[in-house]
Structures are given as structure tokens and as C-alpha cells.
Amino acid sequence: MDSLADFLRHLQREHPGEILEVDRPVSPGSFQVTALLGHLESRGQFPLVLFRSARNLRGEVSSFPLVTNVFATREKCAIAMGLEPESAGLALSLDFAGRLQRRLPPGKLAGEDAPVHEVVRTGEDADLRDLPLVRHHEMDPAPYVDMVTVFRDPEHPFYNLAFQRNMYKGPRRLGLYMAPRHSWQLCKRYHERREPAPVAIVVSHHPLFFLGCLNVQPFGTDDYEVVGGVSGSALRITPSATWGEDFWVPADADLIIEGEVPPGLREIEAPFGEWTGYYGPQRLSAVVEVKAITHRRQACFQDIFVSHRENWILGGIPKEGDVFNAIRGVVPSVRGVHFAFSGNCRLNCYVSIEKQAEGQARQAALMALASCDFIKNVIVVDADIDPFNEQEVLWAVATRCQPHEAVDIIRDAKGSPLDPSVTRETATSKMIIDATMPKGRPFASRTRVPAEALKAARIEDYVSAAALQAIPCCWDSRRSQ
Ligand SMILES: Cc1cc2nc3c(=O)[nH]c(=O)nc-3n(C[C@H](O)[C@H](O)[C@H](O)COP(=O)(O)O)c2cc1C
Hints:
The protein is an alpha+beta fold. The protein folds into 2 domains: 4-309, Pnp Oxidase, Chain A (Roll), CATH 2.30.110.10; 331-434, 3-Layer(aba) Sandwich (UbiD C-terminal domain-like), CATH 3.40.1670.10. It is built from 13 helices and 24 strands. The protein has helices spanning 4-14, 32-42, 74-80, 90-99, 182-192, 207-212, 223-231, 309-330, 360-371, 390-400, 403-406, 451-456, 465-470, and strands at residues 19-22, 48-51, 66-68, 107-108, 119-122, 144-145, 148-152, 159-163, 166-170, 173-176, 197-204, 236-240, 244-250, 255-261, 267-269, 272-273, 279-280, 283-295, 301-302, 334-339, 348-353, 377-382, 407-414, 427-434. The strands form 5 sheets. Strands 5, 6, 7, 8, 9, 10, 11, 14, 15 and 18 form a 10-stranded antiparallel β-sheet that branches. A 5-stranded mixed β-sheet has the order 20-21-22-24-23, with helices on both faces. It is globular. The two termini are 43 Å apart. The chain binds flavin mononucleotide.
């Protein structure tokens, strides 16, 4: 797998509109970075941003440039996967779902040859205050690292990789929140033996590494093999600085924090701005005692603008393809699936089908809900509606269905406990809207300019490029529609 620096160079060279470089010093620990990202967002602009002079927690310009917004457009995710930006729609999600089926065992690299070990800081030198840690939202009590943790089973040699947040608590102390899933289970196994659980936090790496970490595989799967499958080449791993060959870490990462989670210790952590756009509650969470920070000589420090677009895209891409494939099993004429930004790429799912028989829309919707528990609302539309175009989807809702016939509510199904409207822990109601045209009876035809006329009348033949350029685009997010 290439390095993060390779990816940045590729964007600079081939897709300069996708990367913005800021030289002026910024203070990520006091909301300056998220404020600037917020301004870009309100302009409808989502470039990767490379802050060349980011201050660390001591207030000095850090030696680590800060990279953020890496996943804020699907186009950048497609580019990271070696696809054309034009494949950033459903093709990207289907490609990702296909890659998740592959496994490639990791390749082993001696510690001294690993780029991530070019600099090894241990003991007092492993100091989190040297890093440009980002505080994201007003009520976050401290800066957070919200990248990928690596845990290993204490008895079997498999590793689990997952995005998990770590709150800054002191120069060598972090607060780690783990929902009761695989990492939590592995950590518990060490704690049942009264041993601290080793953990590595991969802070910066090529985006393909992080995309591979979005997999949700059965417990016991070696995620290093899955990441290799997603990236198409074996992930190189190397003995960690702290535990040697007992715990291997990604060799081509830019920066890794190694630490231990002691048994029986819980401390206050959060509130934290979540993907929902709301704060998640304060909790008693695990603690990481930092043992080492290792990095490349020219390492970048990477962050995710949580609770914003890149957080949503990372939630949606790994699921969209699976949901499409699940629906295709029962409705082979499914044409598209999209997890819309309006539901933070989780709660609202739009499905388009070439309807061949009545009942198929409900069938497709039920399959979507069954295959992905975080979907709350499913809207099924006809194949002439692009599920990636929300305005078209809502037009279909407005004009192709009668609510008393088209809307179904399912009560008490499993959803996300972070949805603030949920009143019973994880139980939520779910809504299906069948916005497809009826079959077997006439329905109004949609207006169209003839396709031949569109093809024949080229606008460039009638209007100069400069005049066209000067007209504001009404699809621009700043203009009312
Ligand atoms: C950007 C991002 C941040 C996340 N933060 C957390 C977190 O702080 N804690 C957590 O338990 N899950 C978090 N998740 C969700 C987990 O990564 C996800 O549930 C994953 O499947 C867990 O992996 P596992 O099942 O292998 O344990 C986050 C996901 C993303 C994309």
C-alpha cells in the first residue's frame, strides 16, 4: 500500500481541486481547524485540507502537518481506491463490497525497515502534547483522536481494527470509548486474565487503510487480511515498539500511538459530538496509558471531522453495496441504493427499482431494513429517479404516492441508541415510503424535452464559455432552491 504522502502528492498532481493547503499557523486544540472546515462546509466545499503549520498542545508549531477532511467527498474515496472520481456513486460502494470478500495475509517487515519506526519515542518522550490534536465541537471536553485502534486476541493471532475515539487526558493518557463490539470483547479477554490489553492507535495512514478498517466481519476474522483484500496488496506489518513480535502494527503508517488499557479502570469521558450531529452522553470509559509514539520522519497527523460529512461517508460506503446486494437477492431489478446526507448517510436510505410487479417496492424496503439495522427510513422510487438526487426522490414522494397507501410504520425495531429521538434505548420505529408509480393502471407521464433535441442543440454553440461561467449555479448549496 502507498503512503499517505503518496496520496497527497497524487491529489496535488491529478486532482488539485480536491486538496487545499494552508500555510498560516492554526490552533486545532482551540477549534480553529473545525471553524475553518465549518466555513468551507457552509460554502459547499469539501477539499482535503493540509494545515502545514498546525500548533501542538504546547502552542508551538508542530513538526507534524495536520491532514483532515480526507474522506469528505466520495470522489476522494474513489481516488484512494484507484477508481475514477466519476465512479463515486453506487459503483464505488459495489466495488467496496466486492473487495470485502477478498482476504490477503499481511507481509512481515523487520522493525528497523519499517517506515513507521523511523522515529520511536518512548517513556517521557512519548508525549501527546507534541501532536496537533483537534478539539472539534463546543462541548467536547478536550481534543480527541478518532482514528483506528488495533487490538489482538490474547490467545489467537488475529487482530481487530476499528475506528474508536480517544479523548486527551494528559501527556500519556487517553480515554477510549468502545461500544460492546469486537475490540471491547478482545480487551475484556485480557482483563479477565488481569492483564492490561495492548492497543495501537493508527493515527495516520493511506486512506485505503482506513477504508479497509470499515469492514464489519465475524468475530475472529483477522482484519489485517481484510485490509489487504480491500487494498489489493498485502498489508505490511512490523513488530511494535512496545511488545515486539507479540503485537504487530502496520509498517507503512505515518504515525502510531502504542499503549495499554489497564484492567478495572474506568474514567469519565465525553460528551462528544457524534455522527448524528448531536452530542453523545458522558460515560465511564476505558483508559489508555501511552507507552510509545512511533512515526515516519516526515509524518503527517491525521484527523476526521467527526459529526460532519466525512464521518457520514465513512458510515455509508461500507453498507450501501451490501444493502444493494441483499435487495438484489429478492428484487433482481433493483437499480440503485443510496444512504443520503440528509440522514447522515445512515438513517435515510433511498432505493430505486425497475418495478415489474406490485409488492416489489415493499419487498425491497423490508430487505434494506433487515440487512442494515441503522436504516430508519426507506424510500423506494422508480428506476427513472436517481437515488443520489434527493430533490428527485422527494419529487417522487410528492407526486407518485398517496400517503395513506404508501407509508408503513414498523414499531420497536433495532436502531441506533445515538438517535436522539429514540425513547426506548435501541428500539425505534421505522418508516417505509413506496413512492413508485402503480403498475397496471395509467399514470401521468413526466415532462421531457425530446432526447434528440437535447443532443442536437449544444449550448456551447449558442453561448460563449465566459457567459456560461458567469451565471451562478442554482445547485450551489449557498443559494436557495
Ligand atoms: C469516524 C468513526 C468514528 C467511530 N467512533 C467510534 C467510537 O468512538 N467507539 C466505538 O465503539 N465505535 C466507533 N465507531 C464505529 C465502529 O468503528 C464500528 O462499529 C466498527 O464496526 C466496530 O468494529 P468491531 O465490530 O470490529 O469492534 C466509529 C466509526 C467511524 C466511522
